[in-house]
């Protein structure tokens, strides 16, 4: 069968691209070997947030006395039920994607897709043709030789989503978003957690103040955080205990835990899909593309985790829309990679966009900082979530360079500074925009005022 556009992979990049192509009047097919919605909806973003919500509710129950409430008896997490709820949430969202595809008359082709020639793709023995083929095959957890994954004792994020019981102890290797979220989840539910990070600080991609704050918050959970530490080997004893040899500030040591979670990044799914045979250029494990996501082979495109750039669901969606609109001749503006919002859904949450202080210094950019601590926020105090702050960086012309936030619900607040940065808003414009009171969002206004030396509540 002949299509205008075939998309391989139904994650946030693939299904969004498919819907946009259908909206523009193209005949579209979507190839998927697993569930609709890809890893994000089924084994990543969505089910993880469901688990984290259960842990948050558990934390509220444990601290009910702080809010003037008394709970008779002891509140205990039921891991099987927590996971069951998470899986139902994921399935609900996957069904929603299937509904949208059907509503937009997009053909669903189940199976593994492999390019056989420009404009041709084989799916489980059946060949399909299209003028344009977009690869959106996503990524999988990266595995290191020193940390051999067996799926039982040494696991990745996928297995961490479906544990039927809580281990007594867990070593989490890697403190990026995935590692930090799972470390917070299990530490909150009572597991003895140790986080091992190769780089000098936790959440190493975040602003340094954010990293230091979150390291303190993890230690409040009685989770150990070991930075500047390398995992040399992991082995499982006959008794099923994980022995982890590390090298860090104290030299070589051996840690022991019931389970090890490897969260050392992701690897693009580009093997076996036919790109080698067609000569599609690859660099450092990612497919090379131009600003419209064309590969080196005419008619073949790539988006999402398999191309250079942040491996984030919302980035893949933006790339998919840009790619399809370029194919359809709409001349879209390129994706702005300097204004990509980033979130970590621990408690407190972490949210950021734009430059960190370190990046501004390295680039020789003159900047000023405005901060607002949530200890001064009425809404944060009433909610019992006074940890954290809003930190805004402005250039010499008072335009927003970056925003870095730690606190309750800051991931929901991130859209404002993201839009402000995209539009080139100044500190004065943010400070003079009336924010509703009492809200956490007032922290953005207050931080802008602080940068101008006009803070009212500090």
Task: Give an overview of the whole structure.
By secondary structure, the chain is α/β, with parallel strands linked by helices. Helices cover 32% and strands 26% of the residues. The chain folds into 3 domains: 2-140 and 267-327, FAD/NAD(P)-binding domain, CATH 3.50.50.60; 154-264, FAD/NAD(P)-binding domain (3-Layer(bba) Sandwich); 348-451, Enolase-like, domain 1 (2-Layer Sandwich), CATH 3.30.390. The protein has helices at 14-23, 38-43, 45-62, 79-103, 157-160, 177-188, 208-220, 275-278, 313-327, 357-362, 378-383, 410-413, 415-423, 427-431, 442-451; strands at 2-8, 28-32, 107-110, 113-117, 120-123, 126-135, 139-141, 154-155, 169-173, 192-196, 224-226, 230-236, 242-248, 251-257, 259-262, 266-268, 282-283, 286-287, 300-302, 342-344, 349-354, 367-373, 389-395, 400-407. Strands 1, 2, 3, 4, 5, 6 and 19 form a 7-stranded mixed sheet that branches. The chain has a 5-stranded parallel sheet with strand order 8-15-9-10-11. It has a 5-stranded antiparallel sheet with strand order 20-21-24-23-22.
């Amino acid at each position: 069968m002949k299509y205008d556009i075939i998309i391989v992979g139904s994650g946030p990049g693939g299904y969004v691209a498919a819907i946009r192509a259908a909206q523009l009047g193209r005949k579209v097919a979507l190839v998927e070997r697993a569930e609709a919605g890809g890893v994000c909806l089924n084994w990543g973003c969505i089910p993880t947030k469901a688990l984290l919500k259960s842990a948050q509710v558990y934390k509220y129950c444990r601290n009910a006395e702080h809010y003037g409430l008394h709970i008779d008896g002891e509140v205990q997490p039921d891991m099987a039920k927590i996971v069951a709820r998470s899986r139902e949430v994921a399935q609900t969202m996957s069904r929603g994607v299937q509904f949208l595809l059907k509503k937009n008359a997009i053909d669903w082709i189940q199976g593994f897709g492999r390019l056989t020639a420009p404009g041709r793709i084989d799916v489980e023995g059946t060949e399909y043709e299209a003028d344009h083929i977009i690869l959106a095959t996503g990524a999988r957890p990266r595995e290191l030789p020193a940390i051999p994954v067996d799926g039982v004792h040494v696991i990745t994020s996928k297995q961490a989503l479906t544990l039927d019981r809580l281990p007594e102890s867990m070593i989490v290797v890697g403190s990026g978003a995935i590692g930090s979220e799972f470390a917070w989840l299990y530490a909150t539910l009572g597991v003895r957690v140790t986080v091992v990070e190769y780089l000098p600080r936790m959440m190493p991609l975040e602003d340094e103040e954010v990293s230091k704050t979150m390291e303190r918050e993890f230690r409040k959970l009685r989770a150990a955080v070991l930075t500047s530490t390398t995992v040399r080997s992991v082995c499982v004893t006959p008794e099923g205990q994980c022995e982890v040899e590390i090298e860090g500030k104290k030299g070589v040591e051996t840690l022991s835990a019931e389970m090890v979670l490897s969260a050392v990044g992701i690897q693009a799914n580009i093997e076996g899909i036919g790109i080698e045979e067609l000569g599609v250029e690859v660099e450092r494990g990612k497919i090379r593309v131009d600003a419209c996501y064309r590969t080196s082979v005419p008619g073949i495109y790539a988006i999402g985790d398999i191309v250079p750039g942040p491996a984030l669901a919302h980035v893949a969606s933006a790339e998919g829309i840009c790619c399809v609109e370029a194919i359809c001749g709409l001349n879209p503006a390129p994706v702005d990679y300097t204004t990509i919002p980033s979130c970590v859904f621990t408690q407190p949450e972490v949210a950021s966009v734009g430059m960190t202080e370190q990046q501004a210094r390295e680039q020789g950019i003159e900047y000023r900082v405005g901060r607002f601590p949530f200890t001064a926020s009425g809404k944060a105090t009433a909610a019992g979530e006074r940890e954290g702050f809003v930190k805004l960086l402005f250039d010499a012309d008072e335009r927003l360079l970056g925003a870095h936030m730690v606190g309750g619900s800051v991931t929901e607040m991130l859209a404002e500074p993201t839009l402000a940065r995209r539009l080139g808003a100044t500190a004065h414009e943010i400070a003079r925009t009336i924010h509703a009171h009492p809200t956490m969002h007032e922290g953005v206004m207050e931080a802008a005022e602080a940068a101008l030396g006009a803070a009212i509540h500090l």
